[in-house]
Amino acid sequence: MSPAANTLGGATSPYLRQHADNPVHWQQWTPDALAEAGRRDVPILLSIGYAACHWCHVMAHESFEDDEVAAAMNADFVCIKVDREERPDLDAVYMNATVAMTGQGGWPMTCFLTPDGRPFFCGTYYPKPQFLQLLAAVTDTWRTRRGEVEEASDQVAGELRRMAAGLPDGGPEIEPALCDHAVMAVLRDEDVERGGFGRAPKFPPSALLEALLRTYERTGSPLPLDPVVRTGTAMARGGIYDQLAGGFARYSVDADWVVPHFEKMLYDNALLLRAYAHWGRRTGDPLALRIAAETAGFLLGDLADGDMFTSALDADAAGIEGSSYVWTPAQLNEVLGGDDGAWAASLFEVTERGTFEHGSSVLQLLTDPDDAERFERVRSALLAARSRRVRPARDDKIVTAWNGLTITALAEASVALGVPPLLTAAAQCAEALLGLHIVDGRLRRASLGGVVGDSAAILEDHAALATGLLTLYQLTGDAAWLTSATDLLDIALRHFADPQRPGRWFDTADDAEQLMVRPADPLDNATPSGASLIAEALLTAAHLVDADRATRYGEAAEATLRAHSPLLARAPRSAGHWLAVAEAAVRGPLQVAVATDRPDSELLAAARQLVPGGAIVVGGAVDSSPLLEGRDRIGGNDAAYVCRGRTCDLPVTGARELADALGVSV
């Protein structure tokens, strides 16, 4: 039976469409593709990657565009392409298999499966010669030693099911001492000299920065703030940050944050916007506020597609990694002239030797320029010149979870920066996302060009979007946002919560496609885990809804935090967002209800500026929210009611009194 032709042309994933013209007979992951492997009695060759991935492009050019390689693939395999961002459930299952077999993972991921989906050999990137050898070896083993294949695939499947059991039941109480323990463990891994945690390659520790800021707000100790300043400064001044246009690259390949892996992801920039905005709001640090403003500008300028936000900018342009971003002294001189060119080279650390390939340099800004007007002139000229270069491709896929993170970040940045249009952008994104990505009452994972894909939303989609909607509700008072958020939370409780283990969550719904194992990864990685995100949303929502739902949400949040407290005790580096949520929980969470009849209330604005991260702030007339039930203005003045958990202080009517009640300085 001849293999099916390449079917990726109609995909809703830009990554899959990149491979639509390959001579490989790629198919999407469908029941028909799996059935074809069974009919032909051949293995499945599963390739998983994403549109902005540099090494995915390399393997595509070397192998998937090559007729010789394609002929071997088509003859002996059913070849399936998966976008890991569109199908994170498949990525999670087979990444666990890859790590179990090889001790490491990455993309492109290359897995060989039995027709029923059990992996028996996994790896990542292979150069063409090694890949051809591998194809021949797998084909021979499949034909001549099928028993060994079945035995290996059974062993891997058993290991994946064992891994899926997750954390043991029971853990320490969520209390300040546990948060302090987690912080001290994290700080032992800090690179005090260069910023960041651990060794190269270094990834932006977004969730950890947010958590450390919350610890600082709770304790007042500089110990957790200092690494935020060191790491935040090192990243903002290094090559991982785009010194001309704003926005962060995926990670730094070196320990000094000089040379990035150049792809720019929506989720990284949303999470970092939130962290820098929080740092700037709390301390007034001018660098933090500048980076927050520029990162918001990058999101709105480079990743926006209508009202929603696209997924990524590619690492490559015209097949060359980083070519859009790097400079030589000669190129600076050509654009700027001798005097400004030399000044810019010194300022941006551009040397004849270079910091990247072929004597080029990634721009850094280790010190602020002494001539702001000259700097803006130089930067504008370089940006104009850069715009004439071949630009990186953009992955225009709209991912629900990442847009949810962006809604939260933009809304919170609007307060930190005093820029109301950022709140407007957040609200427009939410409205568009709800209008497009909810189909027949259920949330979908992704869309492209206004066409919603078939992939069902996972836990992180529901949770991240719910948190964004709850943030909008607090800042606008529009009850429609609260209703949409609680609808998502109710669906999550019904379809994603583990009925056998309170506080545990699956990443896929109980009515989604049933894979070899049902993914349930509680660890925070590049993005927070779905479980830690749902804990945040439930904890917040429990103080914004009626009594019955407040009890249900509150108990679910408490059970979720308790079930995952072993992560804070044993692996806090992989639990940054868990720590941030726990910090909010041990403070009550803190709630401020401002009784006012004015949307521009100065006291309400002060409350939003003064509260720690994770706090809940609402404002409005008496009884307009459960937090304002029975609480009114006092003596004709707006009044703020500060509560911790279910315990409330006496109301205050001035910003200084409110600051005292919150334990912060003004």
TrEMBL record:
What Pfam families has UniProt attached to this entry? Answer: Thioredox_DsbH
Protein name from the UniProt record? Thioredoxin domain-containing protein
Q: Which Gene3D superfamilies match?
A: Glutaredoxin
CDD domains, per database record: SSP411
Spermatogenesis-associated protein 20-like TRX domain: from which residue to which, for each copy?
Answer: 6-160
Organism classification, top ranks? Bacteria, Bacillati, Actinomycetota, Actinomycetes, Mycobacteriales
Q: Which residues form a coiled coil?
A: none
Tell me where the transmembrane regions lie.
none
Organism source for this protein? Mycolicibacterium pallens
